[in-house]
Write a structure and sequence with these properties.
Elements: H1 8-20, E1 26-32, H2 42-47, E2 52-58, H3 65-77, E3 81-84, H4 90-94, H5 96-103, H6 105-113, E4 121-126, H7 133-141, E5 159-162, E6 167-171, H8 183-191, H9 202-216, H10 220-225, H11 233-243, H12 255-268
Parallel strand pairs: 1-2, 1-4, 2-3, 4-6
Antiparallel strand pairs: 5-6
Helix pairs in contact: 8-9, 9-11, 9-12, 11-12
């Protein structure tokens, strides 16, 4: 699999974030709750040095509740506030406003002592492509403030959004980093759609995904597709093609169509709540 994807606009986006960080009080980093380690851009840690931090495990409804809670504890031990969230559930998102103000309590108190009142907290919303930043912002503001899409690269430039009198958000494009040190990181990012699907072979992504699912959630492939998941992975892929009638002329298994079904089932949560990474 070609697992390096770093379009030119990401270099520009990173530079823009570096230029704006001096204006920021808190960096809100969205991770995909299914792969919190792989969806964490190491550049953001460097960028956010000296700033208040809030980590959001987004799409938490698609990940194991038990493992979500382990990640929250993991970050707590590092002194970073972490909350789980399903951005499509607007009720849960509204509580984030209070969490942001709580994280910046000392800053607000310092400003008061200096006679600075009513200055809104400025929060940068960051993360890799397709972790749901725009959906999160729209749920938070209650309006379509940011463009959304289920593919990477929808947000191209920065955008300041006034949340209320207390908070301003800086929406930033999703950025990856130039080189994945670990091949698994690239695979996991491909599973959630953070790389452009057009540059990947869907059958290779699905093949790797089936291997991962066998390991992290035994039984789920058999249950969803009514096949023997203990077979060699290519045989499993072919069996799913036959089961789902994804066949070419002459009865040959259409692995590309089958792979698209498997990938879509994982991304949409039809395979149930699955955490690929635990702390």
């Amino acid at each position: 699999m070609n697992l390096q994807w770093y379009p030119g606009h990401m270099t520009k986006a990173k530079r823009m974030m570096q230029e704006n960080i001096k204006l920021i009080d808190i960096v809100i980093e969205l991770l995909d709750a299914r792969i919190p380690a792989s969806s964490k851009n190491p550049d953001i840690d460097e960028l956010a040095k000296g700033k208040q931090r809030l980590v959001i495990l987004n799409k938490a409804d698609l990940a194991s509740e038990e493992i979500n809670n382990k990640w929250i504890e993991y970050y707590k031990e590092k002194g970073i506030r972490c909350v789980k969230l399903d951005s499509r559930n607007r009720g849960g998102v509204k509580s984030i406003t209070n969490v942001i103000l709580e994280c910046c309590k000392e800053k607000i108190e310092r400003d008061k002592k200096r006679g600075i009142v009513n200055r809104p907290i400025r929060a940068m919303v960051a993360g890799i492509p397709n972790v749901g930043k725009s959906t999160f912002i729209n749920a938070l503001t209650g309006r379509a403030s940011a463009k959304t899409g289920n593919k990477p690269g929808v947000t191209k430039g920065k955008q300041w959004i006034r949340l209320n009198n207390n908070i301003e958000l800086l929406d930033t494009p999703g950025i990856l980093w130039p080189k994945f040190e670990d091949e698994l990181t690239g695979e996991h990012i491909a599973y959630i759609g953070s790389m452009n699907d057009e540059i990947l072979q869907s059958s290779e992504v699905a093949y790797a995904m089936l291997n991962t699912l066998k390991e992290v959630k035994p039984g789920v492939i058999a249950e969803r597709y009514s096949v023997d998941e203990t077979l060699d992975t290519l045989k499993v892929l072919e069996a799913i093609a036959n089961e789902r009638k994804c066949l070419k002329k002459g009865g040959e298994a259409d692995l590309d169509r089958t792979s698209d079904i498997i990938i879509d089932d994982f991304r949409s949560g039809r395979l149930g709540r699955i955490s690929i990474e635990a702390p």
